[in-house]
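Lab manual, section 2.4: Encoding a predicted structure.

Procedure: take the sequence of the chain (159 residues), apply the prediction step described in section 2.3, and record the output as structure tokens. A sample record is shown.
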Amino acid sequence: MLVESKRPYRGYITATYRVTLPRLILNRLVMAYVRLGLPPGKYHLMTVRGRKSGLFHTTPISVMKINGKRWLVAPYGERQWVKNARAAGQVVLRRGRRSEVVAIEEELDSLQSAPVLQRYVTEEPITRRFFDATPLSPLQDFIAEAPRHPVFRIVDPPR
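Recorded output:
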């Protein structure tokens, strides 16, 4: 199902995420790649406990690093992993043989989420079709995107 974009003058259509066979295959390939610890280093496997089932679910994710802070972006909107992470307040990030349990907090302010979303869209072209804004869009467009794409800040432990 496709949803009409707010930018009809450009002819864009914002896609709705669906788990299709090609997407499942791509996710499995990315997961195998990340398990081996192969570059680029921003890709991790995120594991979170299900809020209802209690089972652990793993998904590939890109960890954004901006000004020394790390962020998790939900490019497909409020998926199950978002709800589970929000309920748990922590996730496990794994890459190769390294794993870390990290606390997360949801960034509620659209003004603070917007620069992270803009950077994400710039660095992750595969997810652009799920955003109304493009890498060249003004920050104001990403402020409008923020409610549809939750952004979590990874809380690094004190050193």
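Check your result against the sample. The chain is about 30% helix and 30% strand.
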